[in-house]
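Narrative summary of target 7.
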Amino acid sequence: MSAKPTTHILIIGGGVAGNALALFLHKANSHPLSVRNFTFSIYEAYPPSEKEYLGGGLGLAPNGVACLAALGLLEPLVKHAGLSKASSFWTDSGTLLGRYNQEDGVDYGMYCLMRSTLYDILREESNRLGIAINYEKRAIKVVEKDDQVFVEFEDGTSTHGDYLIACDGIHPLR
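Modeled conformation, tokenized:
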């Protein structure tokens, strides 16, 4: 049996999305049906003390809760978040888009929590698995060449990989 080919993913952004992606890639490596081995590096523009507590509250819909459950993180979510038993979704003009009710028989409820709490849950699991973040690495230039993507950082360093996934939230690459 030949070795699985390796794909290196550059993750730009070490917040909620970057940590979740890294956890899923880590999980994919051990899945028996995986035909590829994933390596990855996470690059975050901010120092660790600034990144952890940015943002406000959020509602994590049942599909987001299912993602955390797939990572084995349902228990810490339930422990640190409040269950929303019902929600309504409206357009700007006041038209009802839909309603969600915990009683409707969905697999997971909607949970409300601080973004920083969700970050903490993901980061604690990443730390437990030995997933590192390269802090103070603000990406300033991205170039695709052949089958590789190259990234230059503000501090003068650079890196390359097979793919780049931007998980940099509301502050995209400039």
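The first helix runs from residue 16 to 30.
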